[in-house]
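note to self — DONT lose this again. spent like an hour looking for the file last time. sequence + predicted structure for the chain T wanted, 160 res
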Amino acid sequence: MSGRRHQLLAFCIAFLASLAPAFASAADPLASTAADAAEFRTQADGIRASMKAGGQYAEVPAEKQKRVGEQLEHLQAIYDKRGSKPATQRQEVEIINVTSEINALLTGNDDERVICEQVKKTGSNRHERICQTVAQRNANRDGGKAALREIRPQGRAGNN
């Protein structure tokens, strides 16, 4: 391969790597990439162990630990149900959302929690998965409110 092709290949690989989902951060306690129910069970057992006395997440408040436990059970049910089949789009979205909630509960970083939804594109029957962090959703909401305030007609004198 020529030097130019190597450069192009390296650029393409770097570009594709930059498109990796932000919700798979190395700092997250739980990954959303378990291959099957057994692998997820191992991950879940590790999280449960880390919430016990002396564990990394032992200081997480009891109500949050309870919610984490409930969500781990919910994810386990999804993995058990799908068996060895690939996840459906709906299951993928649910796995991402629940995993992100667990990570936010354990790390206390709710602004970085990812929320995904399936959106039907206008004029199409296809669904598209849209994922944003809580901080991005809040910024979009606040920006939308500001835009509405700017375009809304101002009250006229005497109409108060």
